[in-house]
Amino acid sequence: MVLSVSSFFAKRMELHLSLAISSSSSSASSCSSRFDPNYNINYTHEHSNKRKHDDYDDDDNDQTMPLLVWGNFCCNKSHLIIEEHQDHDGDDEVQSNYVFVHRRNEYDGGAIGWPPMKSCTENLCQLTMGNGDGVIGWPPVKLCRKKHCQLKMGTEDGGGGGRSKSTYYKVHMEGIEIARKVDLNLHQSYQTLVPTLANMFGKCFEDVKLTYQDQEGDWLLAGDVPWGTFINTVQRLKLQRK
Amino acid sequence: MFPEEVLEHVFSFLNSHTDRNTASLVCKSWYEMERWCRKRVFIGNCYAVNPRVVIRRFPEVKSVELKGKPHFADFNLVPEGWGGYVYPWIVEIARAYPWLEEIRLKRMVVTDECLEIVAKSFRNFRVLVLESCEGFSTDGLAAVAANCRNLRVLDLRECEVEELSGHWLSHFPDSFTSLESLNMACLGSEVSFSALERLVARSPNLKTLRLNRTVPIEKLSTLLQRAPQLVDFGTGAYSAEIRQDVYSRLADAFSRSKNLKSLSGFWDVTPAYLPAIYSVCSQLTSLNLSYAATRSPDLTKIVSQCYNLQRLVVLDYIEDTGLNTVSMSCKDLRELVVFPSDPFVGEVDVLLTEQGLVSVSQGCSKLQSVLYFCHQMSNSALISISKNRPNLTCFRLCIIEPRVPDYVTHEPLDVGFGSIVENCKQLTRLSMSGLLTDRVFEYIGTHAKNLDMLSIAFAGDSDLGLHHVLSGCDSLRKLEIRDCPFGDKALLANASKLEKMRSLWMSSCLVSFGACKLLGQKMPGLNVEVIDERENVNSLPEYVPVEKVYIYRTVSGQRFDTPDFVRIMGKDKDDLYNLS
Fold it and tell me: Start and end of every F-box domain (chain B) (predicted)?
C-alpha cells in the first residue's frame, strides 16, 4: 500500500509529529526550527526517487512511506534530546524513547516531566510489579492452572489415608529477599500467627500487617475474613510494614 | 480455461486456508469459483472483518472458526469488557447459513443467548468447540444438548462457565446417539452420573471423553467399560482412599482399553493409583499430567513406559531426572510442555533446570515444539538445544523471574536465543524471557525469517529492538510485547509493516497517546486501540505512554462495541487530516 505523500504532507509531519531530532541541543519553542534538516532531505529525496518510476510496486515500498524514517536518528544520541533529569549512572543503554520529548519542555519547563524515572526499564518494572512480587499476568500461566497448581503437595505416605496435605505456607516479608515457611496447622487464630510470622523476620507484630493471596490470585488483608475462611483459601502470605 | 466442474474438483483438494486464499487471488474466475465452494472459513481476528462481508463472499460455508481477544488475555492483561462478542456473528450466520455444521471459537464472549440461537438455527449442527471462552452458563449448554440432534462434538476447553447446575448433561435426549467427542473438563459442577453413563453407553462413536473433577475415580472403570472404543480419555479427580477393589477394577478397565491413545485429567492425584494406567502407557501418543501434583519418581515411572509418546504435558515435578528418562524412552516425542508447579514463588523447590530441556533436545530427534517454565537458563544450554534440534518450530521459554541473566556467566541471554533463531530455520513461534538486550532482536530480525508469532516480555533497551523485529521478520503476523522500553519511533517507522500483520499488542511499554493517534489517523487499514483504565486518562498529555495498545489490521473500520476504557485512536472526523 502506498501512502501518497505530497510536500504539503511532509510539512504537516514537521509540525504535528514534532520530532525532537536536532543536532543542536538548545531548546527552542518552535517545532519546525528544531527539525533536523537531514531528516527532511532524506525524506523528500526518497519520495522524489519513487516518483521517477511509473509503477508503484506495492511489494518493495515497505521503506517508502513510513511515518518516520528510521535511519536518521536511531542510536545516534547526539540527535536525541535526552530527558533532563535522566540519570546516566554508568548506564549507557539508557536512551530517551520519547518522540515528543520537547513538548514536555514546552508544557512545564522540564520541571516535572513524565515519568519521574531514573531509567525506563526500572520504572516499567515498578509499574507492573506492584509490591515487588506478583507481577500482573506473569509468569504467563492461565488462571485455571494457577488455581489448581499451588504448592500444597501431599506428603509421602506409606499407606492408608488418601492425601495428607502439607500445611506449610510460604511467607515473604516486604523488603527481605529470603522467604520463610510456616505451618498453619499450629495456629488457630491471627493472634498467634501474626506475632510468629513477625518474629521470623525479626519484627514486632505491631509494626507489620499480614496480607495473603487467595485462590483467585487476589491479595487480601488477613483479619478481614474469619480465620476459617482464611485457612481454606490462603495460598501465600506476605508481611508488610505498617 | 478449465470448466467450472474441473476447477471445483481441483479446489476440493485445497484444505488449508492459506492455499485457498492464494488460489482466489490468481484471477477473477478462480476467485469466483473458489468463493462458491469454500466450506470452511477461518477468521483470526473477529474485528478484522464484518460478518456480512464474509457471508457475501462465501455463501456456502459449513464451518466457521473465529478468534476474539488477543493472546495476552489468557494472562489477565485484557480487562474485562474489552470485547470479543460473538453475538453479532451468531445472528448473521444463523440467518445466512442454515446448514452450518461447525462453530469453533477461541477467546470470545459467548452468551447463553448465543448458544440458544446456535441450538435452534442449524438443523445439521455437528461441532461446537469453545476454547478459552466465557460469558455463558450451564443453561446454554443445556440448550445445545437438548436441541442439537446431530451433535458430534461438544468441546469446552478451559472455558469460564457459570455453573448453575450439572443438570445440563441430562438434556441430551435418549434418542441422541451421535456423540463422538465430549470435553467437559473445565466445568466444576457435578453431573448426574447415571445420565453420563447412559449417554456414554448409547454413543457407539464416542472417541473422546474428558471428564471433570467431580467424577470420582471409583466410577472411571464403569465408563471405560462402556466405551472400549475410546481413543482420548480424561479422568476426573484421580484420588481416593486406597482400596484394592477399586484399584483392580480400574487397572483392569484400562488394560481393556486397547484404543486409548491419549490420557489427561489426573487432578488431585493419589500416587498409589497411578500404576493403574501402566498397561496403556505404551499405546499413548499424548499424555497430560499437568494437574498431577506428584513427585518425580511417580512421573518418571509412567513416562519410562511411554515408548510411543508424541506429546507430553507435565509439571516441573518431573525434574531433570524425569526428563532424562523421557529423552531415553520417548523417542517419538514431538511436543514437550512443562508447567510450573508453583508459579508465584521465586524460590526453587523443584529440581527442574535447563538441563532437563537439554537432555530432551538431545534424545528426542523429532522434538518440534517446546513450552518450558524454569528458574534458570544459560546461553550454552540454549546453544546446545538449538544445535541438537534445528527442526524446532515452536520454542517458548519462560524463566519465571523476569530479567534473569545467564546463571553461569551473568550475561544476557541474547546469544542463546540468537542461536535458536539462527539454527532453527523453520521456527514459526518464539517466546523469550530472561535478561535480553537489543542485541537479541538484531539476531531475530536477521535470522527469524519464518517467524510467525513472537512474544516478548521485560526485554530490550530501546526502540532499536522493536525496529529490528518489525523490519526484519518477514513472516511475522503476531507480535505481543509487555514491559519493554519500546516507544513511538520504531512503531511509526514501521507503520506499513503493521498492515501485513494480524496484530500487535504492547502493554506497559513507552508508546505515547500521540503516536497512537497519528498511527490511527494515517493508517485507515488499522484499528489502533488504546486500552487504558486510568481515571484521568482524558486529561493526560499526548506524550504520556499508554497503558496498553492493541493494533490490528481490519477491513471493517472501527468497532462500536468498545467499553469506556478502550479508545480507537485517530478515527474521529476532527482528527483526520485534510490531505489536499
Answer: 2-43
Most confident of A128-142, A154-168, B106-120, B334-348: B106-120
- Omega before A139 cis (within 30°)? yes
Q: Please report where in the chains the cell 494480524 appears, as a residue.
A: B502
**Amino acid residing at A71:** G
Contact A68 B290 (CB under 8 A): no
Q: How many helices (H) and strands (E) does chain B have?
A: 21, 23
**pLDDT given at position B379:** 98
Counting one residue from chain A and one from chain B, the pairs whose CB atoms sit within 8 A come to 204
Instruction: Please state which of the ranges A230-239, B289-298, B374-383, B558-567 shows the lowest mean pLDDT.
Output: A230-239
Q: Of B397, B470, B473, which is closest to residue B436 (Cα–Cα)?
A: B397
Gap between the Cα atoms of B417 and B380, Å rounded: 10
- The CA distances from residue B310 to B336, B337, B384, in Å, are 8, 11, 22
The reply to whether A99 touches chain B by the CB within 8 Å rule is yes
Residues B465 and B489 sit within 8 Å (Cβ to Cβ): no
Do the Cβ atoms of B195 and B169 come closer than 8 Å? Answer: yes
Residues from chain B contacting residue A76 (CB–CB below 8 Å): none
B186 touching chain A per CB within 8 A: yes
How do beta strands A176-183 and A168-173 pair? antiparallel
In contact, A237 and A172? CB cutoff 8 Å: yes
For B205, other C-beta atoms within 10 Å of its C-beta total 12
Give the nearest chain B residue to A148 (CA atoms): B291
Nearest Cα to Cα of residue A231 among A222, A239, A219 = A222
d(CA B270, CA B140) in angstroms, rounded, equals 34
CB distance B270–A163 less than 8 Å? yes
C-alpha B310/C-alpha B312 separation (Å) is 7
Q: Provide the shortest C-alpha distance from residue A135 to chain B (in Å).
A: 9
Closest CA to B550 of B487, B514, B513, B506: B506
> Do residue A137 and residue B458 have CB atoms under 8 angstroms apart?
no
Asked if A56 has any chain B CB less than 8 Å from its own CB, the reply is: no
Which residues sit opposite B551 in a β-bridge? B504, B528
CA distances, B278 to each of A76, B304, B401 (Å): 63, 10, 36
- Check CB contact of A137 with chain B, cutoff 8 Å: yes
> For residue B560, how many other CB atoms are within 10 A of its CB?
6
Q: How confident is the model at residue B147 (pLDDT cuts 50, 70, 90)?
A: very high
Chain A residues in contact with B437 by the CB 8 A cut-off are 93
Q: Could you tell me where the DSSP H helices lie in B41-184?
A: 51-57, 87-96, 112-121, 138-147
Give the pLDDT confidence score for residue B404 in this predicted structure: 93
Report residue B196 as a C-alpha cell: 453420563
| CA A43 vs CA A18, A64, A73, B502: distances in Å | 15, 9, 13, 28
Neighbour-count burial of A42, counting CB atoms closer than 10 A to its CB (0-12 exposed, 13-18 middle, 19+ buried) = middle
- CB proximity A136 to B under 8 Å: yes
Radius of gyration in angstroms for the set of CA atoms belonging to chain B, rounded to a whole number: 25
Other CB atoms within a 10 A radius of the CB of residue B177 amount to 15
* Cβ-defined contact of A66 to B499 (cutoff 8 Å): no
Question: Can you give the pTM of this predicted structure?
Answer: 0.77
Whether the Cβ atoms of residue B376 and residue B409 lie closer than 8 Å to each other = no
| Mutation for A interface: B314, B342, B519, most A CBs within 10 A | B342
> Residues B380, B408: contact at Cβ < 8 Å?
yes
